[in-house]
């Protein structure tokens, strides 16, 4: 029986373990915290829960257009209740995942793991000196918030994503440093809950994302009261008793009572015995992997945000599965990112997949942009700001990309992702039924428009 030992029980490790058990391997997961990982307990699931609560608060505010008068309802957010809900749901999800592993006969060991090199094969040891000889190792140790020099988090005034749910109350004025997806989503959530928010972007907000989509979200958040300071990086944060001051490189000072440093993630790839095992890292500290999640050392795989793949939960899950299938010689295909959907869960949301303006060879593409203002469902819901952009290959007509800015865009994008994966043409998408009136109608309509223009 092949002995598969996995370092880390986050999404990548969890999915790898389940596939290993299904394929008949003897599977051990060494996890130093709790099953579910940062995905479930600290980053992804907790922030989605916070966003869901923010949406409930917004729902109370945006009623007038529907003829519903709230009569000046004083809607307040109980931070203690909100945070305990976040932790309760995360804990429940982690417990469910543990149960699933247990039922699949996966051995879960609590401890900090590292790899030791044996004469003929490798083993994994824990800090308690428990040793697990392995035929195959999957490193799935995830990542942690990037700490910037001169802005060391103290959990009080200077925070990382992971400190938010321990705050005794909502901030009065939150300064968010870093305008990537996390920074923008969290800025949006706190703004919706009535917090004054300033967002510091060293360049433009949401770099790398469709500029039309970003402009729309930027204008929307600005209209709701978000202050955006862009073009200058944060240089230092100075914490005081009642607040913190952010000093930018050009000397500008921004005061708030809490500062969230949302400056990205750093791979957990040090102290794992990787260099002795001849596993190479990139300059950014990520574990180098190929499409099958193989590292540079035979028999050692890496998946999730500790690896060079994009740091996304959906990628971590699939990569964990691919790694173990490949290691156990089960049929699999390499990781393909051409139909990887991504989202920014603001209101409205941005979701996108496939090719964008920035891709080389974009001249070979045809594109249509369908404003949501004409969509019946968007009008009914009073959320008609946004658009559906569909991109196809000029000659073949195959769908190669899409951008949606709409309510629940993250749900709608799957249809375009499927079209790309199945190599459907715009004509085929245009002839697909969708329920009327819905926003997914818009995808079909965009395809019809693109078809008529080709
Ligand atoms: C605020 C925020 C929101 C996000 N929201 C989304 C989202 O909505 N959608 C999305 O797709 N992605 C999202 N992401 C990204 C996503 O959370 C990560 O890419 C994903 O969680 C990575 O999963 P993973 O399994 O690689 O790592 P993790 O879930 O971090 O799991 C790694 C595990 O390894 C354990 N570990 C580490 N070192 C050791 C060791 N030496 N021994 C034993 N165990 C160890 C850790 O304790 C942890 O449990 C978000 C990220 C952030 C910061
Ligand atoms: N909805 C989702 O799918 C979702 C949500 C959140 C995060 N994520 C993923 O998690 C990962 C981490 O996201 P993230 O937004 O934390 O990281 P990120 O690396 O995408 O963004 C961090 C931002 O901080 C900026 N920054 C760094 N130093 C700065 C400084 N001194 N001053 C001002 N700005 C500074 C960077 O330029 C960058 O734009 C990403 O892979 C992201 O895709 C996904």
Automatic annotation (TrEMBL):
Family stated for the protein in its record: Belongs to the class-I pyridine nucleotide-disulfide oxidoreductase family.
Highest taxon, organism lineage: Bacteria
Keyword Thylakoid carried by entry: no
Cofactor: FAD
Residues the entry annotates as binding NAD(+): 178-185, 264
Official protein name in the record: Dihydrolipoamide dehydrogenase
Span of domain FAD/NAD(P)-binding: 3-320
Cofactor note: Binds 1 FAD per subunit.
Keyword line: FAD, Flavoprotein, NAD, Nucleotide-binding
Entry-linked Pfam families: Pyr_redox_2, Pyr_redox_dim
Entry-linked InterPro entries: FAD/NAD-bd_sf, FAD/NAD-binding_dom, FAD/NAD-linked_Rdtase_dimer_sf, Pyr_nuc-diS_OxRdtase, Pyr_nucl-diS_OxRdtase_dimer
SUPFAM superfamilies linked to this entry: FAD/NAD(P)-binding domain, FAD/NAD-linked reductases, dimerisation (C-terminal) domain
Native source organism of the sequence: Asanoa ishikariensis
